[in-house]
Specification:
Length: 193
């Protein structure tokens, strides 16, 4: 009876040789830690195996990538967390911590995605609002593009139109403040998906 393949077909297999070189069997070329980092960011699945023993060493290679990021001053992991993780290895709680961290990160990713969707919806709503009512608030816009008001009495001839520039300025400031809040909730930049 044949043993099941420990490396499913959808995952690229990366072989790590004794000279620390990494070979991507899916592409038939060598890859660097930076290349693996790019694969992780792109959501590509892979497994790293020791070329000599066949042992899965994915976790240690991913830890190397994190260490590289941390050494570049992109510190994401607080020192106290790192100390606690190290002490949990000695207490035999690594498996429980692993499960907890995995579930926490999945929840964090779901929440982040939800916040980004809300930000996108908010941006679209503001754009629609600005398109719909933009003519009403621009000088000389005459209310075009906005809903007609049946209850508005026409101005008597000869009477000057009221100066609404202060109200328009105030409304624009309020819209800008709302836009900033929505962008902050969605993680910043207005050009992000």
């Amino acid at each position: 009876m044949a043993e099941p393949d420990p490396h499913p077909a959808e995952k690229a297999v990366i072989r790590k040789y004794a000279n620390r070189r990494l070979y991507n069997t899916a592409t038939g070329s060598f890859v660097t830690l930076e290349g693996l980092h790019a694969m992780v960011v792109a959501g590509e699945e892979f497994v790293v195996v020791d070329a000599r023993t066949g042992k899965d060493i994915t976790a240690s290679v991913l830890t190397q990538i994190i260490a590289e990021q941390e050494s570049r001053g992109e510190s994401l992991l607080p020192l106290e967390l790192l100390r606690q993780v190290i002490s949990l290895y000695d207490k035999g709680l690594g498996g429980q911590l692993s499960l907890y961290l995995n579930q926490s990160m999945e929840g964090f990713a779901r929440n982040l995605e939800h916040m980004q969707r809300l930000g996108d919806i908010g941006r679209r709503n503001i754009e629609l609002f600005q398109r719909s009512f933009g003519g009403m608030f621009s000088p000389g816009g005459g209310g075009t593009g906005g809903p007609a008001r049946d209850d508005a009495a026409p101005e008597p001839p000869g009477k000057p139109a009221p100066d609404l520039s202060e109200e328009v300025r105030s409304l624009r400031e309020q819209l800008a403040a709302l836009q900033r809040k929505l962008e902050a909730l969605s993680g910043g930049g207005g050009d992000k998906p």
